[in-house]
Fold these 2 entries.
Entry 1:
Amino acid sequence: MNVNDSEKAASLLEKEGYVQTSEVEKADLIIVNTCSVRDKAEQKVHSLLGRLRRLKNGENTAIIGVMGCLAQQWGKGFFKRCPHINFVCGTHNIHRIPSLVKEAQLRKKYIEAVNFNGHVPSLDLCVPASKGKISSYVTIMQGCNNFCSYCIVPYVRGREESRPSGDIIREVQRLTEKGVQEIILLGQNVNSYGQTLEEETGFPELLGKIRDLHSVNRIRFTTSHPKDFSDDLINSFAEIDELCEHIHLPVQSGCNEVLEKMRRRYTVEEYLAKVERLRSICPDISITSDVIVGFPGEEEKYFQKTIDLVKKVRFDNIFSFKYSDRPGVASQRFSDKIPEDMKNKRLALLQDIQAKLTLEKNRAQEGKTEQVLVEGTSKGSDADIMGRTRGNRIVNFKGSSRLIGKTVQVKILRGYAHSLRGEMI
Ligand code: 5AD
Ligand code: SF4
């Protein structure tokens, strides 16, 4: 979602004549897009802003802005801590970035735009299909009403708002006309898409409407909440050929006591039943997840249940995080916090187990023939190109860069920890 927001901001500024540079010292305008979902992300922003302060201490007169969740959370606080910042732009105000920049240039004083509007104007912003773009995000909703007890998102992104399906379809159409092959539908909880709309389009219907365009090669979506992951949506994996066989379904914990304190509103048993149904409809689906370790009150036996679940589901991969307190969320006030060294140990153990599972899963691809959408040249070698399987695995193989943007058949020769090696057929 943040990448998508950065693209929106960049496209608004390009319309004003700005061009992007990768050399920060040469920039006239620097905008830091921020995430505040975990403490570590927040620390990264502060160290980057520290580096920019040193840059501005010299001759540099660049305008510096901060956007995103941390901007929303801190508002005025940013200026007190970082007086070298010229403006702060919250999550509902991306559309105002060009005018904020102009104002900052004219008034040379700190400006902030962090008000929440009933309607989120930036939801209507579309990302341009730049030449050669193969894959594009399309925002279908923003905000979240779930208030999981550890999560800051509902506070910094506001209440859930879905975008009318007609606008989404038009954006997808425009992107595919420009050659985009893959559409990734974005939202904090795409499964509850449509609840704020007058029209009766739920998420499975939206997927059907996109399929009916017959112009999209691949459809993906993120993120799903297990509690809203319906049978209709599971059936979509059988009914919509364009829907890729990959689902990111954050479980967070394998222990019902912890899930309840997290306010996730599903049980381990319900989660497992959904996974089973998904696999019965689509046996090769790749399933990834998010897991938090060291949530307040997570006893050793509770953590062990998470390990058991990870081994039972055999996820293709997981993103795992140490719990961190976020300001204002419910779990910040929970008393039984887990010591940092314990969290570190649990995270290392979990990651070790998952690394082995991921390697096993990648090895199990050997000998299969996969449809691969070529995305670019490989990092490791100029002679190789890379792309993704429908299950979202990265494959490197010998081939010409002329194949970028094309879908080719690749035989998988070898599975590694983070990618596959293949041979084009
Ligand atoms: N501490 C640790 N991880 C968190 N996440 C969200 N909030 C926190 C927190 N306070 C993780 C969840 C979520 C992912 C985007 O970030 O796993 O799915
Ligand atoms: Fe946060 Fe829960 Fe909403 Fe996901 S569903 S954004 S974890 S509150």
Note: The pocket of 5'-deoxyadenosine (ligand 1) is lined by residues 37-38, 150-151, 250, 252, 290, 292, 321, 323-324, 326 (CB under 6 Å).
Entry 2:
Amino acid sequence: MSERTFSIIKPDAVKKGDAGAILAEIVKAGFKIVSIKKISISKSQAEGFYHVHSARPFFGELTEFMSSGAIVPMVLEKDNAIADLRKLMGATDPAKAEAGTIRKMFAASIGENAIHGSDAEDTAAFEIGYFFAGLELK
Ligand code: GDP
């Protein structure tokens, strides 16, 4: 069944100039781009986005990183979009990611790992609404 998910090309990948190549992988994998933009967010906006991780030891590092430069948030659509994007992204730690995954190809470390993707229906709904207004989601 057609489903929507949320993704971010993270600051490390945007800085390196990899955003276009990552988008090409996403499109090649059959995702339709419903909405996309390039923006920067503050540390407190990153904290709001990652609130579920607020007790984790890397929360400060993560939110500092996500507010360190431009990001490319997007809403993607296809059958099984949530699970399929997670597969295409690869493991959180690029050293453990399978060949052909975005993190294997473009990420440098467990923290600076090129791409975010929602992990469930409820988080996808929250994350889409955090970054996009209804008007931007046809
Ligand atoms: P994901 O769903 O694969 O993105 O991974 P998680 O939900 O576990 O973590 C969210 C994000 O936090 C990851 O994508 C990383 O950017 C960051 N992160 C996770 N583990 C670590 C860690 O051990 N150190 C640092 N610095 N960041 C981490």
Note: The two ends are 18 Å apart (CA to CA).
